[in-house]
Amino acid sequence: MSTPASGSAVFSAVSDMEERVRDLVGFAQALCVFGSSSTYIPPKAVHVLAEALEALAARLETQWELAFKLAAEAKQ
Length: 76
Prior knowledge:
Number of domains: 1
Structural class: mainly alpha
Shape: elongated
Low-confidence stretches: none
Distance between the termini: 13 Å
Number of helices: 3
Helix content: over 70%
Radius of gyration: 17 Å
């Protein structure tokens, strides 16, 4: 039987997501600027952003799953 996670471990797991969440906000802001601009955006530029967003989302999802698991263990 494993030792339940502590509140400190849960906080740390959630806190570790902060930079990636803020990066996601920055990407969203950039896409809003692109979307409201009448300037041509090359497809490659959009593709590069999409790849970066996919990678960021995958890392954030992994961190979220860990934080959720630790929170569930701490609740027990």
